Structures are given as C-alpha cells and as structure tokens.
Amino acid sequence: MRAKYINPFTDFGFKKIFGEEASKPQLLDFLNALLPQANKIVDLSFKNAEQLGITEADRKAIYDIYCENESGEKFIVELQKAKQNYFRERTIYYSTFPIREQAEKGNWNYNLKAVYCIGILDFTFDDYEAEPEKHEVVHFIKLKDQKGKVFYDKLTYIYLEMPNFKKSEAELDTRLDKWLYFIQNLEDFQSIPVIFKEEVFSQAFEKAEIAKYNQVELDDYESSLKVFRDNKATFDYAKETAYNEGIAEGIKEGELKAKLEIAKTLKTNGVPMELIILTTKLRKEEIEKL
C-alpha cells in the first residue's frame, strides 16, 4: 500500500513537521511534552543553525533545528538515523556552540542561558542493550558531581531511544507518548487515529500528507527518502554481517575447545603424539602445551 504520509525519520520529513516557521506549534507542543512542567516554553523563534559552527565543516554538519525560547534559552534538536562513531562526543562538541555564542564583548559576567540538546534516535545505545532494566525511552543527562548532585543545571542532554518505545495506541498515557507514537508510526497511517483529533496534531498530519506537496517538494522528499533507505540498508547489512561473523567465530572457538579437550584426554592416557595429531588435526605445538 502506498504511503499517505511522509517518513518523519527522513531529513525532509522531520523538518517539514517540526523545523519550519509554520511548524512552530508542533515543535512547541513536542518540547513542552518532553520538558518538565517547570520549564514550559511560551514561544519559540528559529535561529540559523549554520551560524553556530566555527569552521566550514562544522557549519555543514550542524543540527537539524536550532531555536530559542522567550527567555533566551537555546534548544538544539536533531534526528539521528543511524549509529556513528563518537556520537556522544559529537553531541557534546556541538552543545558548546550555543554556549560560546552567548559571549559578549567588553565586560561580561558569564551569566549563561540554559542550553538543551535533544536527540531523537532511531537506534539504541550499546551500553544499555545488555541491561534490560535500562531499556528506557527518555534519557535526561546533566552535569553532576561524584555524589550525584547536579553541579551545573543549565546544560541538559535529552536522548529519545525510539526503538525502545513499544506502546500501543491503547497504552498511550502522556502527551509525550502521543508524539512518540506519532513519529514512530506516521508513515504507516492511512487515516488519522481518534487520539490525534486535537488541532496541533491535525496540522501535523496535514503537513505530512504527501498528496499536498508540489513537484519540487515531492522531488526533495523522494531524494531524502532514498538517502534514508540507503543508510538503513547499509546499517542492516553491517549489523547482519557482524552477527553472522560472530556466530561463525563462536562455532570456530567451540570446535577448537572440543579438540583441545579430546587431545588432553588422549595425551593423559598415553596415546602417541602422531595419533593425537591425526585424530584432532591440531598442531604438535598446541598439544604439547596441554
């Protein structure tokens, strides 16, 4: 069945829903659903993300959305589609840009505005995969001391591990649940579910409807979708290859261990070296070490 709505995990789709001036109500509602009630945002203004980077390379690899609330607090939002080396380091590096941007000429007291870095991840962190109890969707990270006390409360990293969000429509409890369900399932919807009848969601669906796009927008979306699919195929292939290689390596190690055990038993029972080699196909040096 042909998709009625765009894939929000594409660059085009994500920016269409959250990153345009006309999409401000959606971004505002999403951020307020994500942040604690005490940090509620009244208004947002989009800023030019390409002005953040110091070098030309930085300016080409900047976050998807950069905005500021009515109090001057900075919000960097990115959709990360696949794992990459040093992803966390990259996040921390880019979080320094809106901090340095606040520097004033002349006398300045270093009173910084808060910075929030939000990553919507289409993958999970490796170090949580081995701990099922840590398979959470939302991760709030702040700078803390050795006793767990917040040392600096104006720098916050928020990561959303989308593969860990497994709620059904009937299980949605919070506003954030609705937005995560919307992002995760948008491309599969053929009609708007009842839970999304509010205006902010209705507008999001309207912006996401492929049939409403002109030819230029369609071409841009198809190009973005191709990049997404190519990247996903490359990632899936790498993951499957690593898994298969791991199985093969495990079998190989198991076979070697079995041969060594057999050789050890034969050697203990005084079987001649030549016969042990013939039986196990091990090298003489390996057998002599037993």
From TrEMBL:
Cross-referenced PANTHER family: PD-(D_E)XK NUCLEASE FAMILY TRANSPOSASE
InterPro entries recorded: RpnA
A Pfam family that the UniProt record links to this protein: PDDEXK_2
Superkingdom: Bacteria
Name this protein carries in UniProt: Putative transposase/invertase (TIGR01784 family)
